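Hey L., structure's done. Input below.
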Amino acid sequence: MNGLLILLLALAVLLGAYLIYGRYLARTWGVDPKAKTPAYEMEDGVDYVPADTNVVFGHQFASIAGAAAINGPIQASVFGWVPVLLWILLGGVFFGAVQDFAAMYASVKNKGRTIGYIIESYIGRTGKKLFLLFCWLFSILVVAAFVDIVAGTFNGFQTAADGTVAMVPANGSVAATSILFVGEAVALGFLLRYGKLHKWANTAVALVMLVAAIVLGLRFPLCIGLNSWHLLVFAYVLIASVAPIWALLQPRDYLNSYLLIAMIVAAVIGVFAARPEVNLPAFSGFTVGGQTLFPFLFVTIACGAVSGFHSLVSSGTASKQIKNEKSMLPVSFGAMLMESMLAVIALIAVASFASSAETAALGYTTPAQIFAGGVANFLTVMGLPRDVVFTLINLAVSAFALTSLDSVARVGRLSFQELFLDESIKGEDMGPVRRLFTNKYFATVLTLVLAYFLTQAGYDSIWPLFGASNQLLSALAFLACAVFLKRTKRKSFMLWIPMFTMIAVTFTALAITIVKLILGITNGTYPLAAAISITVNGASVLTAWGAALQLVFAVLILALGVVVVIQGIRKLLGKIPAAA
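Output:
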């Protein structure tokens, strides 16, 4: 099998899905180009900020296209390239793109409110509270996993088997360029808000900034150790998640989206030029390395097929920036399909290597490095310098993770705040405890502190729980949107199969994960070496355990999911009065 044939098949399926199925959904649900969107109706200069379609698309795509779109297909490739490709294409079209569009549509029709508020309106107040708690726990998992991924990508030092430590300039260049991105994003934010330039002038300025950051980053690498990067990335997330959306989040995603799209286009061109052979088996079996195809293929490949996190972005930030309802289709449905294309490229990249032994010999120990190495091999066929290409691809991968980080931290902060908000109680009438818990700084710090504890266990140990909880969030989003569509007399049948499928997948995966964690803790597979140590008077005090904390999260997430699903299905199957 040739990688080019896989790519051509994917392009045909995804393009056809947008033109046919996406437009069908828009007509069926009733997108109204003349309706006043929440971005104008609720404009506040912080969260509700009208933006051009290309700007919101950049935010949406950069936020949802995290490192998971690359990590998932590469990790799941142990099952063979056929099941991975089928889930990416079928899942991306009939699960992921539908979920993202439905979540954004429901939010825009409900004053830009989050999925949590939609659950409250159409399922019940208790369901909303439980869902918000679920979202908060999930956000902590995402922040923990992605901070570790970003810090690992930025890590300027590598320890060899003999204990010697060597500098890694490529990682230092990625780190330097990413820091420059942040500074440039702030400047671009002020330009977009106050410059009043034509959108093509803004685009030209953004591209110049992007190129300048890359050139300076390659020339002046910044080499800092892993632990320091953990702290620095958390500090960045703290600032980014409370800053006005126009000052950093919106322009940073706009700036990075060009890099991410350029990377995908370059990779596609590289596949056309190199025509790499697929060296993975078509199918490796239903059980590989102790993991079963069901449910773990479907939770390992989240972003790229379907991801519950997308529903939080679609309803939490992007819906508040939509100028015109007709922009929802390209921003939500279109961005998801582009991410599916990225997942296909990741599959082709890992399949182009002869074996895992080859990738290990090249020093590729993470999915991001395998992806960058594969794409670099494709583009060297065209005469491009391999080292430069490898660095640039790594830079783009870190941009994926970094852009997702502050978006999910903001979502986590908002979920925690909403958990304690009561519209019947005005701000001045709140008690001290409620006032503290609804303070955005307290909510952000608490979220990030818990995420820091989990980060110490490493993203690879967090990934199974992240994947299962992410897909359960997708099932809950499908459920909320289905109830909304039914209440508003719109067709919802296209959500039912994805919803029940993801419920079955995630409940099974979470149950298996909980059993493994319990067995691992009891038999010593997960020793206290994963603990975070704090020295007090010369003694080491164990304050948290990675596996134990994951077990607590897994049990809570499964319990919350079961209760919300039961409440939602009762509403979905029962007689619901028509909306007024």
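Strands lie at 157-159, 165-167, 287-288, 291-292, 532-536, 539-544. The chain has a mean pLDDT of 84.

-- N.
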